[in-house]
C-alpha cells in the first residue's frame, strides 16, 4: 500500500514532468529539423543535411534516431511513475529500492542522451571549401537565425533537466528507504 500522500505527490510530479518534457522535446526536435541555415548562399533545412543529403555519415544520422529513442524511453519512465502511483499492493521498501533504480536509470539515459547531442554537434557539414561543424553553424549568426539557436539550446536544457530529475529521484528513493529502515529498526527493538 502507498506509504503516504507525500510519496503520491512526488510520483505525480515526476510522471507529469516526464510527459510534458517528452512532448516539448518532440516538438522542439521537429521544429529544429524544419529550421534552415544558409551556407554558401544556399538555404538548407537541417532535416535535409542529416537525412536526405548523404553528405554526413550514417552514424551521425543514426545519432538523431537514437536521441528520439531515448526520448521515448523518458515517456516510458513517465508511464512507470504513473503505474507506481496507482499501484496499491507494493511494499514500501521494495518501492523505495525500485525508485532508486529508476533514478539511476534516468541518470544513465540522460548522460547517454547528452553524449549523442554532443556527437550531433560535432558533425562536420561539408562545404565546397572544406567543412564546418554543425555546432559552429548553430552558434554563428552569419549562418543561422536566433530561433535555430534557441531550439538547439532547448535540447540541452531539457536533457539537463532530466539529469537533475534523475538526481532527485535517486536521492528521494535513498531518503525514503533510510526512513523505512529506521522505522523497521525501531519496531524491531
Describe the structure in brief.
The chain is mainly alpha-helical and 189 residues long. The protein has helices spanning 5-33, 46-52, 58-86, 92-121, 134-139, 146-188, and strands at residues 36-39, 42-45, 124-127, 130-133.
Q: Which features would summarize this protein structure in a list?
A:
single chain; 189 residues; mainly alpha; two-stranded antiparallel ribbon; 6 helices; 8% strand; elongated
Task: Give a written overview of the molecule.
The chain is mainly alpha-helical and 189 residues long. The protein has helices at residues 5-33, 46-52, 58-86, 92-121, 134-139, 146-188, and strands spanning 36-39, 42-45, 124-127, 130-133. The strands form two sheets. It has a two-stranded antiparallel ribbon with strand order 1-2. It has one domain. Helix 1 (5-33) packs antiparallel against helix 6, helix 3 runs antiparallel to helix 4 and helix 4 runs antiparallel to helix 6 (146-188). The protein has six helices and four strands. The model has no long low-confidence stretch (mean pLDDT 88). The two termini are 24 Å apart.
Amino acid at each position: 500500500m502507498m506509504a503516504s500522500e507525500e510519496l503520491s505527490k512526488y510520483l505525480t510530479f515526476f510522471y507529469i514532468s516526464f510527459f510534458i518534457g517528452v512532448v516539448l522535446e518532440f516538438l522542439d526536435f521537429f521544429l529544429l529539423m524544419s529550421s534552415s541555415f544558409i551556407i554558401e548562399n544556399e538555404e538548407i533545412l537541417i532535416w535535409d543535411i542529416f537525412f536526405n543529403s548523404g553528405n554526413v555519415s550514417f552514424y551521425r544520422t543514426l545519432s538523431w534516431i537514437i536521441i528520439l529513442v531515448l526520448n521515448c524511453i523518458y515517456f516510458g519512465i513517465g508511464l512507470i511513475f504513473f503505474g507506481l502511483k496507482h499501484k496499491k499492493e507494493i511494499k514500501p521498501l521494495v518501492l523505495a529500492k525500485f525508485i532508486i533504480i529508476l533514478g539511476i536509470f534516468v541518470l544513465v539515459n540522460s548522460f547517454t542522451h547528452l553524449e549523442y547531442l554532443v556527437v550531433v554537434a560535432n558533425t562536420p557539414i561539408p562545404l565546397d571549401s572544406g567543412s564546418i561543424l554543425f555546432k559552429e553553424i548553430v552558434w554563428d549568426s552569419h549562418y543561422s537565425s536566433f530561433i535555430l539557436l534557441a531550439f538547439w539550446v532547448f535540447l540541452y536544457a531539457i536533457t539537463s533537466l532530466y539529469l537533475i530529475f534523475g538526481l532527485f529521484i535517486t536521492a528521494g528513493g535513498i531518503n525514503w528507504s533510510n526512513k523505512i529502515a529506521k522505522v523497521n529498526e525501531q519496531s524491531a527493538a
